[in-house]
Amino acid sequence: MDNLFSQLALYFSHEFVVYALIVSVFIAFCASLLGVTLVLKRFSFIGDGLSHVAFGAVAIASVMQLTNQALLVTPITVICAVLILKTGQNAKIRGDAVIAMISVGSLAVGYLLMNVFSTSANLAGDVCSTLFGSTAILTLSLTEVLLSIALAVVIIVFFTLFYHKIFAVTFDENFAVATGMRAGVYNTLLAMITAMVIVLAMNLVGSLLSSALIVFPALAAMRLFKSFRGVTIFSVVFSVVCCVLGLLIAIIAGTPVGATIVTVDIVGFLVCFVLGLVL
């Protein structure tokens, strides 16, 4: 045990590990806070679809050899988030069909671009690291750390100022609209913020696994708590603890960061599921 703590102390003496831990905490916080509302509104498909879109956007940024890929990936993902939301409400095109078209199309186009215009000798490795995460979380700059903190502050302010309206839109959108509330505006804002969280989460768990940070904490919290506030608070705590634990395990054991964090989330969900049956 002493050796373990000594090893952890050695790792945290490095600045890049501290950066990784800070960003992991804030990404987990943002994803879980959004996740409760998205899951309750059955909007979790947006997170899954945007994770595929983000891969396609990264492929385009790679082909263009952009130094800061977020400048292209973020607006593309945000635009697609609004597009998925708006077209998903169209009676002629069901939401599941829209998400299938955009997500599968993004993956196909992204891989095609990376294959045709590849500038790397290890295309398979680049694709795998983009989809499932890599060591990018351990190479973060101070700017990316500050961006994660800024996004967390924006989400906290958003949920604090509009908590009651988000609550109303989440549980009874028709009633909220009937009372004069602009539900469409709040849905659009949620979709846009979700897109930004997905882009940040790609550094942590990769594009395909990023939606897991949104879904698992919310589902785990719902096994144990019934109130919206209780589910939200526990979801945040659950997500942050699992993310930090998964990151530490990955650093010590040398396992893939993204897959390790999601696996810890799965184990945590199973524990909460069993406790929910017993309690």
Automatic annotation (TrEMBL):
Q: Which SUPFAM superfamilies match?
A: ABC transporter involved in vitamin B12 uptake, BtuC
> Does the record's keyword annotation contain Transport?
yes
Taxonomy, superkingdom: Bacteria
- Location in or out of the cell: Cell membrane; Membrane
Q: Which residues cross the membrane?
A: 16-36, 69-85, 97-117, 137-163, 184-202, 208-225, 232-253, 259-278
Bilayer topology term: Multi-pass membrane protein
Q: List the protein's name.
A: Metal ABC transporter permease
Q: Which UniProt keywords apply?
A: Membrane, Transmembrane, Transmembrane helix, Transport
Q: Does the keyword Ion transport apply?
A: no
Q: Which family does it belong to?
A: Belongs to the ABC-3 integral membrane protein family.
Task: Cite the Pfam families for this sequence.
Answer: ABC-3
